[in-house]
């Protein structure tokens, strides 16, 4: 090898965003480009307006001459094989008309996010330009209005799912192929987005996330849908993936600025980027547990030690020991390697604990009996306990219910005791903010048990 190599060319579907610039980075062109890249596209842009904006509001806005906008669209469409377009802040009648003319010539999907007013209440579209949207809608593969925007387009504000369906039908009657009427501005514990198309209606529902940090969520959703359409996904799949992406971006928002924060467009990329490091941290933990011989702390069923990615949501995001650590004649047998998804019990316990203590990143299960209980007293650890008899029939899983029992009231235990049941070995679980801490505690417990 001479140290050089020929890089393999990568081909990503090109997506064009026609939108305004948000100096605050959470919405507009900035949100779109981050989202397009994060969802698998190559992002290009045509800037309609430059806003001086942050998390508290829009201080001023400068609309570019439409000739400059047209020149940007042409520069992109002349050179690139644009597979999808999305529109965002269009600011004035002239801009809406210019965009309408240009997208009418394109044969790719067009997602129209009819941006009118920012969440801070600042106008991003002149009132006079609202009626110009009718012609643009006629070129839209999908329009993505929120309830307020649907009210402007249809004349009445949808307040529930049935009214959202009716609003979607009206938007289709105006010429759009489909409408996704978003439920974020409608009341309720769940957010329900309604996709209306000629082929039928579909509902996408997810629990409302308790945060004001939704700045940029509309831009993010429409850019994600456009990118999935550019990749060839059918409309319903593109919407489903877009909604999932946006939900995670809101759930793990950035606390930036003095106003409500902004959505986290790169959450999945960041999570993926650290998977190897998380797996290695579990491997290091296994090496230490074997070297220090924690066999006195290993239960009959074996011990798992697990670590979560920063935005873990399922057991597939938790690295763990395949086959668990077990007791062997010579000490600790190290299982069959580290794999994401290799733990069920400890992983589910950690995931549920993180709903209350998001800083917890690692856990392990440990032997529990009278000897361990007296060792705990000497160790002076903060210990919690759950009682399996108190588990309601309606609980989905013991691990999830148990972690909620322990952590919901703000407790901060090192170890959690489960005294077991008929056919169920008593167990202790150790949780901490890192696998290193879990390992240190397991070693401490094993040493204490060995001394007796
Ligand atoms: C330049 C710019 N474009 C669009 C918006 C609106 O963003 P959106 O995600 O629709 O909603 P809010 O961020 O306003 O809640 C914007 N603010 N700036
Ligand atoms: C079988 C079992 N039950 C546990 C409990 O805490 O109730 S811990 C445990 C062993 C670890 O399981 P996994 O590899 O699925 O994480």
TrEMBL record:
InterPro entries: Aldolase_II/adducin_N_sf (IPR036409), HMP/HMP-P_kinase_dom (IPR004399), PM/HMP-P_kinase-1 (IPR013749), Ribokinase-like (IPR029056), ThiN (IPR019293). Residues 281-443 form the Thiamine-phosphate synthase ThiN domain. Keywords: ATP-binding, Kinase, Nucleotide-binding, Transferase. Residues 22-264 form the Pyridoxamine kinase/Phosphomethylpyrimidine kinase domain. GO terms for biological process: thiamine biosynthetic process. Its EC number is 2.5.1.3, 2.7.1.49, 2.7.4.7. GO terms for molecular function: ATP binding; hydroxymethylpyrimidine kinase activity; phosphomethylpyrimidine kinase activity; thiamine-phosphate diphosphorylase activity. It comes from the Archaea. This is Phosphomethylpyrimidine kinase / phosphomethylpyrimidine phosphate kinase / thiamine-phosphate synthase.
């Amino acid at each position: 090898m001479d140290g050089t190599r020929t890089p393999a060319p990568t081909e990503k579907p090109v997506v064009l965003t026609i939108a305004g610039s948000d100096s605050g980075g959470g919405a507009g062109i900035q949100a779109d480009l981050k989202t397009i890249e994060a969802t698998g596209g190559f992002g290009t842009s045509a800037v309609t307006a430059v806003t001086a904006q942050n998390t508290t509001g829009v201080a001023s806005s400068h609309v570019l001459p439409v000739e400059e906008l047209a020149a940007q669209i042409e520069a992109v469409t002349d050179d690139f094989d644009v597979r999808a377009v999305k529109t965002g802040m269009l600011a004035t009648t002239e801009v809406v008309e210019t965009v309408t003319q240009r997208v009418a010539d394109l044969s790719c999907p067009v997602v129209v996010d009819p941006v009118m007013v920012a969440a801070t209440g600042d106008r991003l579209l002149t009132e006079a330009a609202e009626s110009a949207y009718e012609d643009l809608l006629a070129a839209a593969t999908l329009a993505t209005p929120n309830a307020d925007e649907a009210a402007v387009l249809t004349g009445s504000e949808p307040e529930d799912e049935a009214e959202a369906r009716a609003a979607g039908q009206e938007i289709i009657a105006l010429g759009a192929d489909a409408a996704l009427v978003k439920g974020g501005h409608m009341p309720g514990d769940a957010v329900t987005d309604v996709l209306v198309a000629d082929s039928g209606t579909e509902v996408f529902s997810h629990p409302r996330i308790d945060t004001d940090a939704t700045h940029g969520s509309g831009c993010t959703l429409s850019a994600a849908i456009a990118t999935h359409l550019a990749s060839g996904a059918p409309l319903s799949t593109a919407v489903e993936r877009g909604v999932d992406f946006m939900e995670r971006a809101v759930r793990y928002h950035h606390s930036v600025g003095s106003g409500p924060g902004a959505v986290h467009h790169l959450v999945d990329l960041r999570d993926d980027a650290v998977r190897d490091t998380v797996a290695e941290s579990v491997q290091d933990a296994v090496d230490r547990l074997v070297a220090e011989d924690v066999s006195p702390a290993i239960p009959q069923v074996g011990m798992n030690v697990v670590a979560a990615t920063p935005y873990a949501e399922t057991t597939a995001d938790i690295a763990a020991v395949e086959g668990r650590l077990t007791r062997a004649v010579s000490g600790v047998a190290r299982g069959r390697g580290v794999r994401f998804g290799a733990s069920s019990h400890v992983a589910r316990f950690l995931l549920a604990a993180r709903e209350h203590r998001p800083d917890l990143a690692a856990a392990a299960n440990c032997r529990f009996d009278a000897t361990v209980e007296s060792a705990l007293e000497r160790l002076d650890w903060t210990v919690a306990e759950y009682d399996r008899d108190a588990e309601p029939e309606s609980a989905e899983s013991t691990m999830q219910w148990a972690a909620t029992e322990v952590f919901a009231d703000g407790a901060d235990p090192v170890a959690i005791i489960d005294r077991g049941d008929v056919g169920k070995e008593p167990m202790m679980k150790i949780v901490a903010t890192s696998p290193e801490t879990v390992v240190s505690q397991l070693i401490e417990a094993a040493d204490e048990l060995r001394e007796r």
